[in-house]
Amino acid sequence: MRVNNPKIKVDDLSINPTLICSIDLEFDYSLEIPISVTGKLIGSNNRVLALISEHQINSDYDYGLRLLSKDEKEQSRKENRPHRRFVQLSAQLTQIAIESIENQRDKTSDKSINFSLDLVIKSMSLTKDISDNRFEDFIKIKIAREYSNVSIEQSEWINKFSEKLGIGKFMLVELKVPNSEVPDFWNKLFELLRKNVTDMELSIRSGDWQKTMLFARKFFENIKIGDKKKGHKEFREELNKKMTELQHSEKGIQNLYDGIWQFFEFTSKFIHDKDTDGNNYEVLPIPSKEDAYFVYALSVGLLGLLGKNLE
């Protein structure tokens, strides 16, 4: 038995996150037949992600064995024309397994992921030829272990795996869109902020935490309308009016502006090498997944708050 052409894809028909691991199983039909294939899906850290087993077939198979003469056996070996059986194995992933995959992928420079298939293959073969009439076993059940590796590049993982496995899947938030009575300049700002949030989401799906922080910094730069700059005056006056109508105090509104400014400062630390005075070079923080999700969630919340106050 030989294992060739290993591939992995997402099972689109499964409710639970499941991978389909497929292989081409080669064997000499005249001398042996496969019985079953099971095994384990191993991550790049050599930890078991899931047990895999054969739960589906593309068509029925009907194999049989017959006694061959010694010459027929030898001829079959010389011809070396293997029979191929396409095998599909299911690997149901838990949330912990998915998180482990993402953590390992995050550690690789090219953001790819490597899997190993640790397979247990059971097969049956005839040990005797037709001329051998000794009273011995003539059927042999063989249990063999085979290994195969599968690598999935970043682009393929993002496009074909991430979303289907629930990676980068966020809570749905209904964003309030400013109504038609709101001045046009507000609508333009809102669309710009929404694009910043979309860019953050795409970066998170790609596992690019640095780029997420870059777009977060752009978001907070665009939304810090309370910084009393001349160009932000009309934005600030309009939002102050709307929030006052909702019984927010002047101090509370200023607290909101101050908080936005502080998060602009926070995200800037991931981007700029120099301090705020432009003198000293600083070591840039290394963004983590938690940093990325935090600023994304905060941005979505602020965008929803802004839309609510302008509806």
What's the CATH topology label of the largest domain? Immunoglobulin-like
Total domain count: 2
Query: What is the CATH class name of the largest domain?
Result: Mainly Beta
The main β sheet shows up as: 7 strands, antiparallel
Average pLDDT across residues?
Answer: 82
Radius of gyration: 30 Å
Overall SS class: alpha+beta
Q: What count of helical segments does DSSP give?
A: 8
Q: Let me know the number of strands.
A: 7
User: Which consecutive residue ranges, at least 5 long each, have pLDDT under 50?
Assistant: none
Shape: elongated
Q: Indicate the proportion of strand residues.
A: 15-25%
- Termini gap: 67 Å
SSE sequence, one letter per element: EEEEHEHEEHHHHHH
CATH architecture verdict of the largest domain: Sandwich
Helix content: 25-40%
Strand order of the largest sheet: 1-2-5-4-3-6-7
Explain how this protein is built:
This protein has 311 residues and is an alpha+beta fold. The chain folds into two domains: 2-162, Immunoglobulin-like; 184-310. Helix content is 40%, strand content 25%. The protein has helices spanning 70-79, 95-107, 154-162, 184-205, 209-223, 233-245, 250-268, 289-310, and strands at residues 2-10, 18-27, 32-42, 48-56, 83-92, 113-126, 139-152. It has a seven-stranded antiparallel beta sheet. A hairpin with a 7-residue loop joins strand 1 (2-10) and strand 2. Helix 4 (184-205) runs antiparallel to helix 5, helix 5 (209-223) runs antiparallel to helix 7 (250-268) and helix 5 runs parallel beside helix 8. The longest helix has 22 residues, at 184-205. The relative contact order is 0.12.
